[in-house]
Amino acid sequence: MEVVIVPDAAAGGELIAEAMAQLLRRRPDALLGVATGSTPVPIYQALKAKVRSGAVDASRARIAQLDEYVGLPADHPESYRSVLHRQVLEPLGIGMNAFMGPDGTATDVQAACEAYDRALTEAGGVDLQLLGIGTDGHIGFNEPCSSLASRTRIKTLTEQTRIDNARFFGGDVRQVPHHVITQGIGTILEARHLVLLATGENKADAVAATVEGPVAAVCPASALQLHPHATVVVDEAAASKLKLADYFRHTYANKPGWQGI
After folding, report:
1. Which of 197, 193, 194, 188 is nearest to 14 (CA)?
2. How far apart (Å, rounded) are the C-alpha atoms in residues 222 and 148?
3. Which residues belong to the active site?
4. 111, exposed or middle or buried, with CB in 10 Å at 0-12, 13-18, 19+?
5. pLDDT, tens digit, for every residue of 27-54?
6. What is the mean pLDDT of the segment spanning 106-130?
7. Alpha-carbon gap, residue 212 to 118, rounded angstroms
8. Are the beta carbons of 141 and 155 closer than 8 angstroms?
9. What is the rounded end-to-end Cα distance, in angstroms, of the chain?
10. Measuring CA to CA, how many Å separate 22 from each of 50, 163, 241?
11. Bridge partners, residue 1, by sequence
């Protein structure tokens, strides 16, 4: 696993945005797996700046959704489809015809999960998947003890996750859905490049378990250790409990060529 320690969230966002830009220069129609929440916002802002400056053209990129609430209409402002339209598609000049996501309003949710899982494969697979991490080590909505071989499926949110997400619903936890569709860990691991960004001291325990702990379902993100091209980008606060932090700093500082990921 490649671990890169950066000074702050903005530096992490810039580094990952440049990796995405490099991919789009090589393959303009790359399938980018995107995540929601506050963590990836610096990535999207940095990529938007590159598009506006003419440093990269993202208009032919394809976008794949990591997860979605069950029961929220697609046009609800807090559906992840709506969030990604505001934060990613519109700023990067990508049309909705290039967007892939699960149907959270489907009558048969299980069938919708299976259909999305197949669609990702039929599209050629995700080229680069962005990930955040929860304080308990979850990725996507794969909570602790999720199967490391799991596929796209419906999951029940823990009460803590609903409380954490209430800030997006005016602070009212009653408005937060109880269920989500999420790519499973097995599905996530099929992406060609996994890039996880973690910032803040509250993520330090989860980052240490992910990078230096055993591969275990109790920390779903630890499955990234099994991937041939996984990059974990963390700020100093999130790296504060890594025993090998100095080694990671030295390795990246002495990486040949430009400091890419």
Report:
1. 197
2. 9
3. 67, 136, 138, 143
4. exposed
5. 999 999 999 989 999 999 999 999 999 9
6. 97
7. 33
8. yes
9. 11
10. 11, 37, 31
11. none
Main-chain phi, psi angles of 126, to 5 degrees? -80, 130
CATH architecture assignment, domain 2-253? 3-Layer(aba) Sandwich (3.40)
Here the tokens at position 160 are: 């803590």
DSSP code at position 237: T
Average pLDDT estimate for 6-27: 97
| C-alpha–C-alpha distance, residues 153 and 200, integer Å | 29
Question: Mean pLDDT over all residues of the chain?
Answer: 95
CA distances from 19 to 119, 227, 258 (A): 25, 18, 11
How many residues appear in the chain?
261
Domain boundaries, the chain: 2-253
Phi-psi region of 67 (alpha: psi -120 to 50; beta: other; left: phi over 0): beta
- pTM of this prediction? 0.95
Q: How far apart are CA 130 and CA 120, in angstroms?
A: 15
Summarised one tens digit per residue, pLDDT across range 203-242 is: 999 999 999 999 999 999 999 999 999 999 999 999 999 9
User: Strand, coil or helix: what is 63?
Assistant: strand
User: What are the Cα distances from residue 128, in Å, to 18, 65, 111?
Assistant: 12, 12, 25
Taking the CB of residue 249, how many other CB atoms lie within 10 A of it?
A: 16
Question: Does residue 258 surpass a pLDDT of 80?
Answer: no
DSSP single-letter state for residue 86: I
Which DSSP state fits 219?
B
Paired with 181 in beta bridges are 68, 154
